[in-house]
Amino acid sequence: MAPQSRPPSRMAPLGMLLGLLMAFCFTFCLSRQNEKEFALTNPEKSSTKETERTETKAEEELDTEVLEVFHPTHEWQALGPGQAVPAGSHVRLNLQTGAKEVKLQYEDKFRNNLKGLKKGKRLDVNTNTYTSQDLKDALAKFKEGAEMESSKEDKARQAEVKRLFRPIEELKKDFDELNVVIETDMQIMVRLINKFNSSSSSLEEKIAALFDLEYYVHQMDNAQDLLSFGGLQVVINGLNSTEPAVKEYAAFVLGAAFSSNPRVQVEAVEGGALQKLLVILATEQPLAVKKKVLFALCSLLRHFPYAQQQFLKLGGLQVLRSLVQEKGTDVLAVRVVTLLYDLVTEKMFAEEEAELTQDTSPEKLQQYRRVHLLPGLREQGWCAITAHLLALPGHDAREKVLHTLGALLATCRDHYRQDPSLGRTLASLQAEYQALASAELQDGEDEGYFRDLLGSVESLLRELR
């Protein structure tokens, strides 16, 4: 029986399936061939990856090592390969050799700098030598050693002090055994005042007490302490004593206490010291007493405009005029002239200071403006008195009188011009001081004492022409 042939309708799907299978095989073979071609035509990529893996491994191995540190000096030196440069070094590229050169930038700062660089990071050369704990321990030992050294020095110093000085308790004990009492300045002044004020004290004891007291009241605080416990008034009352020596030393103490001490000055004026001092100067007293009393008066009046007002009201200028006109009182006359000069210039300086500061209403300036000293001097005849005092012997006395004449020039100019004796005296002094000034120049003294006196004399002569 002849075989039966398949119908065309069943053969068509089989052919299509066979065609799809062949197409898939062809596509698969083609893709494999492309991969082989890609692998053959791009060998650089695989080699690059391999190189990167090698470099990374080398870097990791390099990270575990410490670079060799280059030690620079003050001269340029070539930097070798693989060497690390300490921080702060000066690096340059030598254009002739193409090598990198290094030297120190600052000697003091980088002499001992042995730190290196690793991939741009600073490394310690001896990384494995010291740990942070080692540094902490070393610092603790250093502090401990410093404290021990300081403690040793303190102990040595204390031992030296103990060797040189004894404790105050031991001194007090020794003084108690010797019947010696340690006193403060305040306690000493109280004791001295009590001794002076005691009716049982002899004249010598009172004088000794005042003499010792004068030493303490030179200090401003002590003078104010003397005021606080009433000692100042006791000394002021001592001016009423019938004993000239008591008056002398009481005035001596007051002059030291008044000096540049406004608080004590105010209390002294309120306590009647100014009146008592003027009374002593106006009456017959030994020269030594009047010297000390005049010293106390000068200390009370200087830099105290209120006391100057009271001085003028109580007739102080008349008292001083009588004092300088007495015979044998040339020393007192020079001191009086110096006092007048100080009072006149003091007021002038106060007014000039107020003018410079543009402050015309300070309390002190107002007080000075109430002191009418220059008119009082003119009315009391001091223009003629100071002119006649220029005849005093001694260059120091003449110098003070010349200064006072200059200070009174604005008030006494007319009188000076009408006084022929003053012109003759000035001309005589000019000739005398020209010769003395020439002698100074010959001795090599460019700015001598007599040249200053000659300048004062010539200045007055020019003003009076």
TrEMBL record:
<dbReference type="Pfam" id="PF08609">
    <property type="entry name" value="Fes1"/>
</dbReference>
<keyword id="KW-0732">Signal</keyword>
<keyword id="KW-0653">Protein transport</keyword>
<comment type="similarity">
    <text>Belongs to the SIL1 family.</text>
</comment>
<feature type="compositionally biased region" description="Basic and acidic residues">
    <location>
        <begin position="46"/>
        <end position="59"/>
    </location>
</feature>
<keyword id="KW-0256">Endoplasmic reticulum</keyword>
<protein>
    <recommendedName>
        <fullName>Nucleotide exchange factor SIL1</fullName>
    </recommendedName>
</protein>
<feature type="region of interest" description="Disordered">
    <location>
        <begin position="37"/>
        <end position="59"/>
    </location>
</feature>
<feature type="domain" description="Nucleotide exchange factor Fes1">
    <location>
        <begin position="150"/>
        <end position="226"/>
    </location>
</feature>
<dbReference type="InterPro" id="IPR016024">
    <property type="entry name" value="ARM-type_fold"/>
</dbReference>
<keyword id="KW-0811">Translocation</keyword>
<dbReference type="InterPro" id="IPR013918">
    <property type="entry name" value="Nucleotide_exch_fac_Fes1"/>
</dbReference>
<keyword id="KW-0325">Glycoprotein</keyword>
<dbReference type="GO" id="GO:0015031">
    <property type="term" value="P:protein transport"/>
</dbReference>
<keyword id="KW-0813">Transport</keyword>
<dbReference type="InterPro" id="IPR011989">
    <property type="entry name" value="ARM-like"/>
</dbReference>
<feature type="signal peptide">
    <location>
        <begin position="1"/>
        <end position="31"/>
    </location>
</feature>
<dbReference type="GO" id="GO:0005788">
    <property type="term" value="C:endoplasmic reticulum lumen"/>
</dbReference>
<comment type="function">
    <text>Required for protein translocation and folding in the endoplasmic reticulum (ER). Functions as a nucleotide exchange factor for the ER lumenal chaperone HSPA5.</text>
</comment>
<dbReference type="InterPro" id="IPR050693">
    <property type="entry name" value="Hsp70_NEF-Inhibitors"/>
</dbReference>
<dbReference type="GO" id="GO:0000774">
    <property type="term" value="F:adenyl-nucleotide exchange factor activity"/>
</dbReference>
<comment type="subunit">
    <text>Interacts with HSPA5.</text>
</comment>
